[in-house]
Design goal:
1378 residues, 67% helix, mainly alpha
Length: 1378
């Protein structure tokens, strides 16, 4: 054709010249093949580079950059493409300057919003290969509200308006793109070539017809130069309509600009020739590519396949498929899906089954196929979409008893108004194929949700399926929220026409609350022709009148043979005070008898609620229990012993108990260290000695090193009561005294007694043991220490740590026995996996020059901890001993990289020991160390300079930092500036401001009186001193003292930076001193952190109105509240029952343009809680409407149930329980029922949980939720009983192997070796393989208990085996998916 001639003419006069010129043109394009995206590997395939290039046709994704057939077919780019499109957002953005009209806070919110939006869209596309219109519009509105849209945000929104919206018709997508373009441009977004290219891509994906010439003209008018991508996409636009002449024009532009041609252009030309009716020219493009030195790519073959599909030419289509396979250019499932889409659109549905058979169900098939189905339905090809759906791989398995494949299909059919006949056929096909358990019910649910119930209810009747009242609840909920009484009446008329009788819940929760009064409801329903004679209406009237008109309720009850009076009784009791119940007791008894004569019955739930109310009203008065305490004198430690002894004599003369006073005397004598007198009193009054007195005396004897007397007292105490145990500190003191007196075996006996009596060891006790062992080490008893250590670790009194292992090494080092110290350290490593004081040992060996032992130590460290750790140990030892040449050789070892933790450890050691030379040498030697943070290294030297007030050294360090081109952090600059200022030196740089924006950084302090200036000169030095003290006091929690010092500094006229004000205000707020904090506010601007603290404080003090005002003022100033502040405020509003307040906060937070990473459930749960707290009559309506709004995400209601259970609100619990059961039994929504069941178990209400399970058996099938509960409880000690209770109710909650592993974890957390042994034996008997992680846990439990495990302990770490199990589970899941 003429276009082909033109194309060849452009390439050159001869084929050989064409090849050379084409190669030259393509050279730059081929280089792009090595971009980062082109080197990534696609999951599930062995191909990289070229295949990835096919997945994204952006400007930087390889040789195939540009537009290909994928831009023509709207189904091709939905899946597995977003990571690359998202990643390219920043690549496309051209650096353009915008006027900074917004505040810093708005810009900060904008950046947060973009990260949030990108994360949400990225997550959606990764999971499903698409995004929803709702999510996109939400992000668009947030960006619009925030203002000042960035270029990246504009790109993100524009690119989302194409094939990523398969559920939106093509015209609406384009309209949305235009709306985004115009709105963002109106808000000041600066568009560059990347934005115009993105708009072009959207046009192509949406098949929007436009004039490429006009498009170029608009770009030129906007002073935006088109690039290669622009031209490629314009060529694709011409080819999409078969305009080869227009495409040739663009090719001419590209030739004039010396732009390279890519495979995308060839693919577009294939499409263009085919749509121009010249299929032969389209086919000849492939030989032209080969002639130009380019092999046809899968994209090219797909373009040709689509061309044949549009013609219905199956013979050539099959031939092309075979050619692609023979060319080693295998096509993926998504490529075949494009061909299927083309066949469907062209009306060649008869060939689609043959193409479906070619699908290989590769990994990722399901989301790709789902998006194809959605696109087909959107374009009116539902039948083809159903064929694809039926080709989905089977998902049934042993644990898959409730299939629901096709939910997305049915939902989209409803949204696209698919005909009723087709819906019936699809539902029947899904059910007959066992792909969906109840498709028709789900379709009805979707129709109710979309308010498109017209014919579906009738369909249910025609199919002889029950139409239940709760099917109409979503419609009634919506009318109820809008107070639309007429809409409610219309729904009731529809129910009556279908022969559905509204039940009690329908009337009580959704109908009557909409009307202002009962009479108004009766009149409106009567006018609408709705019968009021139903049982449901009668009972609902009784419910409504129960709290107001008892006479009329009784009249209604007399004419009712149901249990309707139960609701009246409950409300009656709940609305009467205790005094009213007692005063009307006779009348109530008579009323109950009358109801009994009417055969009125009530349910068990309501009976329990009424009983609880009556019991609470008849609780007998509390008896005041008099605690008879012995008379004692409380005069303090400083009281003379004589006064106590006189009191003791008086008590003895009166023949009264002496034990309390005797104990006080001994404690006083102990404080005065008077052992002799204390022993004399003990001898005189031995019969009146208490346990406390004995313990005090034993401790006093140990302090005086009177070990024999201490043991005698201990024996006497045991004879008094052998079960009595001393407290931990006194036991350790006794052990220390015995060990220091070389009575180690007796000390060991005391340790064994501690184990037998289960003496509790906390962190303080472990520290005391360390000091005790160190004291023994100071005496030089290495053998004694080793004996005590072994006993402590074997008995499990303490776990081995580096600190507890170090005293034995200390004993050898103190005696100058370095070889012994080394042997002791190596033994600790072998036995306890700790290497104590290895640095000190290596330093001693270096000083001694013992190369053999040093080599032995280094070999051992290298073997146990790695060569890099060994090199650092040697490096630090050489630095410590001043052998800097050797240290330099070590640190310059090839391949050595920085270990920040190790470098920090030695730096801190130098700072503490004031070793400036060693620290300075280390900083200098590490200048070329790989990944060494130079700012950190210099900051260590500056810290030591500050401690020693050495400003000269600090100034020298600043010079060296400049020589190294180190970019200092703000904290380093502040540190250096403080050193120089405190010594009266000039600061050679600008000190950065932090935390606050000061309006005038050069603001001067007001003049003060001369006398005040003389007494406290207002110099920077004094200001810095005050500032440092103020901040130190705040950190130590001395808030009042800091507040007083701040006022004192102000009186003296000292210049303070904003930092101390910020710290003092936050400290005052944290303490709850709101008034004092507020008094500091005038005069400067609070940070977001301080304002957030105000909100938190107000919320904690239940001052919700003040908290709301503070939030409002923050938002008006463009301040962003913290996540915690919003959460605390919403929780406080929920506890107050303030639904409107929560909605107000949610609305204000949405106005920020960012969600602050807040979960929507914060508002949902607390709104539900507020409905409960407010005791609203339409409680269920409110809570259910909240839940239904989030039904698709299956939100958890655990928070609400837990709060209700903790608050003992039986009334709300009964209603919520009934709601959860209805959701489960009628809507197949099991999450609320599961949450309630698990909350009952968690609060040890096993019987209630059992009844719940009996009423709702489907809870037992919610395996994921139940297993999550088991996993959660296995993280906390003491929860094994709850897991066992769950298993007792639901034995098959999960596989035994998984269950037993969690139980083993529980036993190990509880340190219950007996139960763990029994579980291990049970697993062996049942033939269950114990995983390595459980074996590791059990082995450690054995070791800590001082016993030997009956199996070899797995050698690796816990993390190793946990990761191994995780990988195994992931592989099993992946296999199941395939």
């Amino acid at each position: 054709s003429c276009s082909s001639v033109l194309f060849f003419t452009w390439c050159g006069c001869s084929f050989h010249a064409a090849t050379e010129n084409m190669a030259a043109l393509l050279r730059s394009a081929r280089l792009l093949k090595f971009s980062p995206s082109g080197l990534l590997q696609i999951t599930g395939t062995k191909r990289n580079g070229p295949v990835l290039g096919r997945l994204y046709s952006g400007a930087v994704s390889g040789r195939r950059a540009g537009v290909c057939s994928r831009q023509i077919s709207p189904v091709c780019e939905n899946a597995r493409l977003w990571p690359y499109t998202a990643g390219c957002v920043r690549n496309y953005a051209v650096a353009t300057e915008q006027k900074d009209e917004g505040s810093i806070a708005v810009r900060s919110k904008q950046a947060q919003q973009f990260d949030w939006a990108l994360s949400k869209l990225d997550s959606s596309v990764r999971r499903t290969g698409r995004i929803t219109r709702t999510l996109l519009l939400r992000i668009f509105h947030d960006v619009s509200r925030a203002g000042y849209p960035s270029g990246n945000q504009a790109l993100l929104l524009l690119r989302s308006c194409g094939s990523l919206l398969p559920e939106v018709p093509l015209e609406e997508r384009t309209e949305l793109a235009h709306r985004v373009w115009e709105k963002l441009q109106e808000l000041g977004a600066q568009y560059d070539a990347s934005h115009y290219n993105a708009l072009l891509k959207v046009y192509l994906q949406n098949e929007f017809k436009f004039s490429p010439t006009d498009f170029l003209a608009k770009m030129e008018a906007a002073n935006v130069q088109p690039n290669r991508v622009t031209y490629q996409r314009l060529i694709a636009a011409y080819c999409q309509t078969g305009d080869i002449e227009g495409a040739s024009t663009i090719l001419g532009f590209m030739k004039n600009k010396d732009l390279p041609i890519t495979e995308a252009v060839f693919s577009s030309l294939v499409t263009g020739h085919a749509r121009a009716g010249d299929i032969e020219s389209a086919k000849n493009i492939l030989p032209v590519m080969r002639g130009a030195g380019i092999e046809p790519t899968p994209d090219t073959y797909v373009a040709l396949l689509i061309a044949y599909a549009e013609k219905g030419d199956m013979d050539n289509l099959k031939t092309t498929l075979e050619a692609a396979e023979s060319a080693d250019c295998s096509l993926m499932d998504r490529d075949i899906m494009q061909v299927i889409f083309a066949l469907a659109k062209a009306g060649h549905q008869q060939h689609i089954p043959e193409m479906i058979e070619r699908l290989r169900h590769e990994r990722g098939f399901v989301p790709d196929a789902m998006n194809l189905c959605l696109s087909l339905i959107t374009q009116g090809q539902e039948d083809t979409a159903f064929l694809i759906l039926m080709a989905f791989p089977t998902l049934q398995s042993d644990n898959f008893n409730d299939p629901n494949l096709g939910n997305f299909f049915l939902r989209h059919c409803i949204s696209m108004d698919t005909s009723l006949e087709k819906l019936i056929r699809y539902c029947k096909g899904l059910q007959e194929s066992s792909l969906h358990s109840s498709p028709l019910s789900f379709t009805l649910y979707c129709a109710l949700e979309a308010k498109k119930t017209g014919t579906l209810m009738k369909l249910f009747k025609e199919q002889e399926l029950p139409v239940r009242p709760h099917y109409f609840w979503p419609l009634l909920v919506q009318h109820g929220k809008e107070d639309n009484a007429a809409g409610v009446v219309e729904v009731m008329k529809s129910m009556q026409e279908l022969g559905v009788s509204p039940d009690v819940e329908t009337f009580s929760n959704y109908v009557l609350p909409v009307f202002p009064s009962r009479e108004a409801a009766q009149q409106a329903l009567k006018d609408g022709g709705i019968s009021l004679d139903s049982e449901g209406f009668l009972v609902s009237e009784i419910r409504l009148l129960a709290g107001s008109n008892l006479t009329e309720v009784y009249t209604l009850c007399k004419h009712s043979d149901t249990d309707s009076a139960a609701f009246f009784l409950y409300n009656l009791m709940d609305n009467m005070t205790e005094g009213q119940v007692q005063a009307q007791e006779d009348k109530l008894r008579s009323f109950f008898n009358q109801l009994h004569t009417q055969n009125i019955t009530i349910s068990m739930n309501l009976f329990r609620g009424i009983k609880n109310i009556l019991v609470s009203y008849h609780i007998p008065e509390l008896c005041i229990v008099m605690c008879l305490t012995p008379l004692c004198v409380r005069q303090g430690i400083g009281t003379k012993v004589l006064a106590l002894e006189n009191r003791l004599a008086e008590l003895k003369a009166e023949n009264k108990p002496l034990n309390i006073v005797l104990k006080q005397i001994i404690q006083t004598l102990s404080a005065e260290e008077n052992l002799q007198r204390a022993l004399e009193l003990k001898q005189q009054h031995e019969q009146d000695m208490t346990v406390g007195a004995y313990a005090t005396l034993i401790n006093l004897c140990c302090r005086h090193n009177n070990v024999d007397e201490a043991l005698n007292l201990k024996r006497e105490l045991s004879r008094m009561d052998s079960s009595i145990a001393l407290d931990t500190s006194k036991y350790i003191t006794l052990v220390k005294a015995l060990a220091l007196n070389d009575r180690v075996e007796e000390a060991v006996d005391i340790l064994k007694e501690m184990k037998e009596k289960n003496v509790v060891m906390n962190d303080n006790s472990i520290t005391t043991i360390f000091h005790m062992l160190n004291a023994v080490a100071a005496k030089g008893g290495a053998g004694s220490i080793r004996r005590l250590q072994d006993t402590i670790f074997t008995l499990g009194l303490a776990k081995p740590t580096a600190n507890l292992c170090s005293p034995v090494v200390t004993a050898y080092l103190d005696s100058n026995d370095v070889p012994g110290a080394l042997e002791a350290a190596l033994e600790c490593q072998k036995r306890y996996n700790h290497l104590p004081r290895i640095h000190d040992i290596i330093v001693a060996l270096v000083e001694r020059g013992d190369t053999d032992l040093l080599q032995k130590a280094m070999d051992f460290v290298s073997q146990e901890r790695g060569e890099m750790i060994m090199l650092y140990d040697l490096f630090f030892a050489f630095l410590q001993t001043g052998r800097y040449r050797e240290a330099r050789k070590i640190i310059e070892t090839p391949g050595l990289r920085a270990k920040p933790g190790r470098l920090q450890w030695y730096s801190e050691k130098c700072i503490v020991n004031n070793q400036m030379e060693a620290l300075e040498q280390m900083v200098e030697m590490t200048s070329k160390l790989f990944e060494c943070d130079r700012d950190d290294m210099y900051s260590y030297v500056l810290r030591l300079c500050k401690d020693t007030n050495n400003w000269q050294k600090a100034e020298a360090m600043w010079t060296k930092m400049q020589e190294e081109n180190v970019i200092p952090r703000e904290r380093t600059l502040h540190l250096l500036a403080d050193i120089l200022k405190s010594n009266g030196q000039e600061v050679p740089f600008e000190v950065p401001e932090t935390w606050y924006e000061q309006d005038d950084t050069t603001q001067q302090v007001k003049p003060v009186a001369a006398a005040a200036s003389a007494s406290a000169p207002s110099t920077p030095k004094n200001g810095n001193v005050y500032q440092a003290r103020l901040m130190a006091l705040c950190k130590k929690g001395k808030v009042k003292e800091a507040y007083g010092m701040l006022k004192e500094a102000e009186k003296k006229g000292l210049a303070l930076s904003p930092a101390p004000y910020d710290h003092v205000i936050r400290a005052l707020l944290a303490e709850g001193s709101t008034d004092d904090a507020m008094s500091r506010v005038p005069g400067f601007k609070l940070t977001d952190v301080a304002n957030s603290m105000f909100i938190i404080t107000y919320s904690k003090k239940d001052q919700v109105k003040d908290a709301l005002e503070k939030l409002k003022s923050m938002l008006q100033l463009d301040h962003v509240p913290s996540h915690l502040a919003i959460t605390r405020l919403v929780q406080a509003l929920g506890n107050h029952g303030d639904v409107a307040g929560i909605q107000q906060v949610e609305s204000q937070i949405q106005s920020l343009g960012t969600r602050l990473n807040l979960s929507s459930m914060v508002f949902v749960n607390n709104t539900a809680l507020a409905h409960i707290k407010s005791k609203a009559s339409n409680l269920i309506c409110g809570v259910l409407s909240i839940y239904l709004n989030f039904y698709s995400t299956s939100p958890s209601m655990s928070f609400v149930f837990r709060k209700v259970l903790e608050g003992g609100n039986d009334r709300a619990l009964d209603k919520l329980s009934a709601m959860a059961e209805r959701l489960a039994n009628h809507f197949a929504c099991y999450r609320p029922a599961s949450d309630l069941f698990l909350q009952l178990l968690d609060m040890d209400k096993v019987e209630d949980a059992k009844f719940m399970l009996a009423r709702c058996n489907a809870v037992a099938e919610q395996k994921e939720v139940l297993l999550s509960f088991v996993a959660q409880k296995a993280q906390v000690p003491g929860q094994v009983s709850k897991i066992k209770n769950l298993v007792g109710l639901i034995p098959d909650v999960t596989e035994k192997e998984i269950l037993y592993s969690y139980l083993m974890k529980c036993h190990v957390l509880d340190k219950d070796l007996t139960s763990a042994k029994a579980l291990y034996e049970q697993m062996q008997k049942e033939g269950i393989v114990v995983d390595e992680l459980s074996l590791k846990r059990l082995a450690v439990l054995y070791r800590n208990a001082g016993e030997t495990a009956p199996f070899p302990e797995p050698p690796e770490t816990f993390k190793f085996y946990a990761d191994k199990l995780r990988e195994k589970s992931a592989k099993a899941q992946a296999t199941a998916e395939e």
